[in-house]
Amino acid sequence: QAALMESGGGSVQEGGSLRLPCAAGSHTTSRRCLAWLRQADGKKREWVSALSTGAMTPTYADSVVGRFTISIDTAENTLHLQMNNLEPEDTAIYSCAADVFPSCDRIETMINSTRGWWGQGTQVTVSS
């Protein structure tokens, strides 16, 4: 299976928007849970959003509901994270990942594991 690669990170002002693409190769057409996770300086990694390629039902962490949108472009084999109304608390390294399981029920157990496939991460910085 292909590795994943994020892009699109950068620095924005509070209230701004960013769109993070993740080149996910054949993972977008396999039965996988695809997810975005983030880790801020000095904090634990947390999951942000997840989407099963089968059910295509997105889930979001409470902190990003209504502001972030996860989507898959199967024609481009790309996983996206649209981030609107960004807050300084969103500052972190964002990583995309593909779990070995087809559903996202176990996404929280992926946070501190090495299973699945991961990208290298992209920095997002939101200034007030």
Quick structural gist:
The protein has one helix and eleven strands. The chain has 128 residues and is mainly beta. Strands 2, 4, 5, 6, 9, 10 and 11 form a seven-stranded mixed sheet that branches. A four-stranded antiparallel sheet has the order 1-3-8-7, with no helix packed on it.
Structural notes for this entry:
It is globular and about 40 Å long. With 128 residues, it is mostly beta strands. It has 1 helix and 11 strands, in the order E-E-E-E-E-E-E-E-E-H-E-E. The protein starts with a strand and ends with a strand. The longest helix is centred in the last third of the chain and has 4 residues. The strands form 2 sheets. Strands 2, 4, 5, 6, 9, 10 and 11 form a 7-stranded mixed beta sheet that branches. The chain has a 4-stranded antiparallel beta sheet with strand order 1-3-8-7, with no helix packed on it.
Which class do the helix and strand fractions yield?
mainly beta
Rg for CA atoms: 13 Å
Order of helices and strands: EEEEEEEEEHEE
Largest sheet: 7 strands, mixed
- Report the portion of residues in β strands: 35-45%
Given as residue ranges, the uncertain stretches (5+ residues, pLDDT < 50) are: none
Terminal residue distance: 40 Å
Q: Whole-number average pLDDT? A: 94
